[in-house]
Amino acid sequence: MQGVDHVTADEMKDKILTALEAVIDPELGIDIVNLGLIYEVELDEDGLCTIKMTLTTMGCPLTDYLSDQINQAVMQIPEVKDVEIDLVWYPQWTPELMSRYARISLGIG
Q: H/E/C letters for each residue in the chain?
């Protein structure tokens, strides 16, 4: 069909990850993607975006704040109709999961 924008699964994943880069951890000042907190993102045919993520520590006081920010960021994407966040603790988050950008920003070699 002409005039219809067909987005591949990889392009949609990139679009979602780009939106998630706007979600900044207020304690560290780095976005959750570069911190390595996002393990997986999926968008099904009904527009449900499932985000598998972790936090730097169990019992993180920012859980609700980050969930709200994630929902706001991802819902800006027209293809997304709903967001489900699956908080997982395995694999456990470690500083090695951070991007080079995040490690440099935080002064970690």
A: CCCCCCCCHHHHHHHHHHHHCCCEECCCCEECCCCCCEEEEEECCCCEEEEEECCCCCCCCCHHHHHHHHHHHHCCCCCCCEEEEEECCCCCCCHHHCCHHHHHHCCCC
